[in-house]
Amino acid sequence: QVQLVESGGGLVQPGGSLRLSCAASGSSFNLYAMGWYRQAPGKQRELVATITSGGRTNYVNYAGSVRGRFTISRDSAKNTVNLQMNSLKPEDTAVYYCNAVAGRLDYWGQGTQVTVSS
After folding, report:
1. What's the pLDDT tens digit per position in 24-68?
2. Among residues 40, 53, 105, 112, which is most buried (max CB within 10 A)?
């Protein structure tokens, strides 16, 4: 069992930055591939970024709409996965969810609101 708790959301002006963090409790954090997803009002949940399970090399993947602006990283010592978001746009406004996957195991956090507005 893994519990995920997101933090770091808030209100930011266009062009600003935010850093989201997801703290994972439970065992075997390094076995899980981690990801960030988001869901805007009236829209389906969509992938933002993923990072492979902990190891010597982590492979990352980004949605085209955030590539070059967002950076996903994981800290195995702290059992956290982070999402650095720069050059934020109003269309980035959404609830952001942390996800952990390992085989059939699939866990979600409760989400954190990010609002980009002037």
Report:
1. 997 788 889 999 999 999 999 999 999 988 677 789 999 999 999
2. 112
